[in-house]
């Protein structure tokens, strides 16, 4: 949903550009161009709104509320880490541009060129910078921990901008060295962090599928299952109700993300008697099934990816055992690994 900010940032800029470009055009041409700009910006927002209404029941889902960082976390530091690890070239080129020797060597811009830049930045890039600042402020104010997908949207454009500036404000040798170092760092980071992350993701996908098969073949249809990571379970559990304790489809749950007792009580109030979680969600909960899994978040320490975080199905305390035999034609679930 943050990408809807693109329309807010882009509309004034595009209208200003159209006004400057079409000064000598007829009023009819200006009206048609303005209408085209409004249509181009409104269509993606309308498409997102239609999807959100169908999937979540409201236009602005609280996906960021569901991904808030624990209390006491410095999300601004996390944002810098994600940006620099994902795009080391940004840090290297910014450092090169900040060197006193590079600033002293800056060529004097002509009057015409000076009108096209602001603080050394091309004015045509200001919407991109504005969007980056708005999204970064949103993350910090909203205390958002999961930032990787939006860094992937913003950072390539920012990297291209920094490269363009560095191409005219640094020596070719500096640019070549920064590019070569960025490639080397990217390969190293991919081997240390991305490869184990993807390996664990593939493992979790398999474990989730086996857990869903176990639920489908052992619990009666319609049994509510509380789970935080609803994506794959929401797709696979066709006969069971998924109680979203992360708050994406049930916003009231987001208030209890870091209150274990309140979270379980809320899930119970929604009808859940089974809970998919790593550790016991409450005292007295009985583990029904467990499948192997490892950390799937993004970590700066490679050792974190070898830590086990099993995928477990728990029966909440005081809940009578429910079961059903395997349905006809459906294979029995695989035993826990």
Give the tags.
5-stranded mixed beta sheet
Summarize the structure.
The protein has helices at 5-21, 27-56, 63-66, 75-86, 88-98, 100-104, 111-114, 126-142, 148-169, 172-218, 230-236, 260-269; strands at residues 117-118, 121-122, 225-227, 242-244, 274-277, 286-291, 311-315. It has 337 residues and is an alpha/beta fold.
Q: What do you see in this structure?
A:
With 337 residues, the protein is α/β, with parallel strands linked by helices. The protein is built from 12 helices and 7 strands. It has a 5-stranded mixed beta sheet. The protein has a two-stranded antiparallel sheet with strand order 1-2. Helix 4 (75-86) packs across helix 5 (88-98) and helix 8 (126-142) packs antiparallel against helix 9. The chain is globular and about 75 Å long.
Instruction: Kindly name the structural category.
Output: alpha/beta
Mean pLDDT: 80
Shape: globular
**Overall strand count:** 7
């Amino acid at each position: 949903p943050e990408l809807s900010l693109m329309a807010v940032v882009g509309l004034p800029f595009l209208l200003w550009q159209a006004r400057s470009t079409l000064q000598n055009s007829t009023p009819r041409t200006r009206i048609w161009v303005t209408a085209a700009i409004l249509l181009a910006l409104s269509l993606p927002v309308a498409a997102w709104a239609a999807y959100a209404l169908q999937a979540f029941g409201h236009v602005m889902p609280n996906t960021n509320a569901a991904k808030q960082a624990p209390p006491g976390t410095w999300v601004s530091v996390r944002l810098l880490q994600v940006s620099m690890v994902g795009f080391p070239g940004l840090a290297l080129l910014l450092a090169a541009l900040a060197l006193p020797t590079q600033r002293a060597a800056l060529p004097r811009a002509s009057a015409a060129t000076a009108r096209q830049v602001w603080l050394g930045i091309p004015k045509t890039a200001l919407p991109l910078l504005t969007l980056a600042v708005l999204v970064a402020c949103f993350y910090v104010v909203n205390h958002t921990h999961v930032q990787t997908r939006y860094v992937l949207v913003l950072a390539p454009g920012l990297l291209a901008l920094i490269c363009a500036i560095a191409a005219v404000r640094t020596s070719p040798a500096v640019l070549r060295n920064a590019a070569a170092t960025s490639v080397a760092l990217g390969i190293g980071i991919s081997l240390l962090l991305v490869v184990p992350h993807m390996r664990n993701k593939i493992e979790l996908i398999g474990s989730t599928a086996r857990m869903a098969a176990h639920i489908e073949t052992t619990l009666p249809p319609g049994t509510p299952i509380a789970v935080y990571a609803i994506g794959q379970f929401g797709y696979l559990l066709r006969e069971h109700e998924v109680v979203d304790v992360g708050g994406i489809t049930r916003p009231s749950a987001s208030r209890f993300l870091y209150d274990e007792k309140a979270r379980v009580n809320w899930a119970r109030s929604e009808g859940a008697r089974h809970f998919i979680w790593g550790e016991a969600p409450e005292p007295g909960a009985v583990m029904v099934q467990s499948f192997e899994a490892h950390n799937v978040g993004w970590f700066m320490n490679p050792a974190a990816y070898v830590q086990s975080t099993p995928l477990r199905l728990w029966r909440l305390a005081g809940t009578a055992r429910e079961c059903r035999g395997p349905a006809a034609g459906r294979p029995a679930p695989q035993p826990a690994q």
